[in-house]
Each structure stands twice: as structure tokens, then as C-alpha cells.
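Batch manifest, entry 17 of 40.
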Amino acid sequence: EDIDVRFPVSLNASSTTLSILESEEQLKQLIWNRERIDEDIGREKFVLDNVRTMYNKKRGELVNFLAQSAPLADK
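Output type: C-alpha cells
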């Protein structure tokens, strides 16, 4: 004898799918933001390295100038 079996239909299936899609979109956005931040950090490091190099060069020039000027100040 055949028995008619019915399973409950979950209404949350579509909301679960929507939730998964929203989560995937948020993940894509976070990855995109991280890539932009990494690029910004790279640019800032490049600028910082250039400024440090220029500072050290100018500091060396000043130290040399002061070393050369010191004997003249004693006269």
C-alpha cells in the first residue's frame, strides 16, 4: 500500500540563499578594501623611504659642513 509522505517546505531556504549571497558580497568588498589599503601602505612606505634617504643625505651634508667650519670658528 502506498503512503503519501509530505515533507515540510522551509521558507528559510530563500532567506538562507540571500544571506549567503550577502555574505559573499561583503567578503568581496572586504577583499577589495584590503587590496586598496595594501596599495596605500606600499605608496606610503615608498614616500617614507625617499624622505628618510633625503633626510640622511642632508644630515650628512650638515655634519660635514659643521666639521669643516669648526676649525674656522677657533681662529
